[in-house]
Amino acid sequence: TVVQQGGSKSLLLLARENNESGIMKATQALAKIAITTDPSIAFPGQRAAELVRPLITMSKQRVGLLQFEAAMALCNLAAMGDEMRERIVKEKGIQAIDDLMFDEDPLVRRAGTEILCNMISLDEVFEQYATKEGVRWERMKLIILLAGVADEDFPTARAASGTLATLSNSEEVCQRIVEERQGLKIIRELLGSGNPELLLRALFIT
After folding, report:
1. In the predicted model, is pLDDT for residue 19 greater than 90?
2. Contacts of 185 (CB under 8 A, 6+ apart)
3. Which of the chain's ends, N or C, has fewer CB atoms near its CB within 10 Å?
4. Nearest alpha carbon to residue 150 among 141, 159, 142
5. How confident is the model at residue 203 (pLDDT cuts 50, 70, 90)?
6. HSE value, Cβ hemisphere, 13 Å, CA-based, for 1
């Protein structure tokens, strides 16, 4: 495989030093590796961190497949731990995640929601959403509504309700759920869904 032959190192170099088309092709290849292989194995040491900037750039391309693959790769990176989450924040990844969550493509929107679910445990990210003074407080409405789409898109609802469960450690977020027109209805639907993953998240929120 490319990974076994040390190709990831070469691709990282091509993703930094190349023309625009070459950079995008190398980044897409790196994204595919990060999606299908544990990034900690495929990109040992600091190589995984070097992926963040090109993947965020790729996520901004107005091509659904590129956005989706970049988002899926970032999601796997964000699951690696706080050091990687901090790198994503440093590279202005939260704004990119926001944009993905508002995308019209349901797969891109789902992947963006899944990244946020993996990012929200980082205090710096939590604080942006969890209080009225937070710079992304207004995004709470979207997160609440996405938690209610289980019938149409279970993975999105699972990620959004997971994010909401973490954010419910904030009293302001709990009040926001109550005040949202469909907030309590969505929580009741999660409680009555019969799905153990959604039920666990709803119980944590309540």
Report:
1. no
2. 148
3. N
4. 159
5. very high
6. 10
H/E stretch holding 112 reads helix 106-119
Assessment of whether the complete model's pTM goes beyond 0.90: yes
Do the Cβ atoms of 174 and 135 come closer than 8 Å?
no
Q: Provide the terminal-to-terminal Cα distance of the chain, rounded to the nearest Å.
A: 47
- CA pair distance 23, 43, nearest whole angstrom: 18
What token pair was written down for 123? Answer: 């205090």
Condensed to tens digits (0 to 9), the pLDDT of residues 29-70 reads 999 999 999 999 989 888 899 999 999 999 999 888 999 999
Radius of gyration, alpha carbons of the chain = 18
Tokens coding 48: 């995984």
| Contact indicator for 144, 180 with CB cutoff of 8 Å | yes
Which of 57, 141, 148, 150 is CA-nearest to residue 102? Answer: 141
Q: How far apart are CA 38 and CA 40, in angstroms?
A: 5
**Could you tell me where the DSSP H helices lie in 37-92?**
39-42, 47-59, 64-78, 82-90
